[in-house]
Amino acid sequence: MSMGSIIAFIAGFCVVIGSIVSATDKPLAFYDIPSILVVVGGTFVTLFISYEAKVAVKALKLLGAAFKRHKDSEMSLKDEVGRIVRWAYIIQKNGLQGLENEITDDVRDENPFLAYGADLVVTGYTGAEIKQILEHMLESQADRNKKYIDALKKMGGDAPAFGMMGTLIGLVIMLSNMGGDPSAIGPSMAVALITTFYGIILARLILIPLATKMSARYDVTTFKNSLQMEGLVLLAERKSPRYIQDKINSFVDVSEQFLIDRDLTSSNSEN
Fold it and tell me: pTM for the full model?
């Protein structure tokens, strides 16, 4: 689990609840089931009206995925550069058969994009062909990811609208009872306004922040895959390990770059 996401999420609700509790002796006035149904139900129904069920379900799954650890955000790009450089030495020594032996089941499970690209190298495609295939793969994945993120952001836009709808419903009910007890107008008005509150909370504390987080994670993964793609292209072109090191180190911050003379020697000694 992503502890940072969980702690921030809990802290956000604590701020809201704490503000309510400290400002009134009737915090239960902010609890209204019909208002919740209007905002949450309307937002989710609109999602399935706007998108195909497959896309809508995937978008909803992202809400849970945002609270899980994201390996690509935690990993060091230096390690990825080092892996490509080591593969270059293996190809120099054992040819493509040596690279094929490196594509283990663990690599396929951990990084399917890298494994797929390495398979293309082993197959014998040229660097230009591999780049074209992998670029198309990245573009297709980016298009799919964008649909899911857009779906979440649309929900974030719809939630306040349904909050306003609930407020209008409440106002109509309140005005229709104006001829009755005047003392009931205040509580009725409060219930009418609470749906707008729910809409804002759902949009600004849940949907839009989580959509932004997942979009940032997709960007991190795409950047890592771009580095790997460049390295795989250089492997297919049989470039030297040092050339590969210098070329793909351009993706990495200077303080975290992989250096053959330092890092490859140390890693071999540890093994």
Answer: 0.86
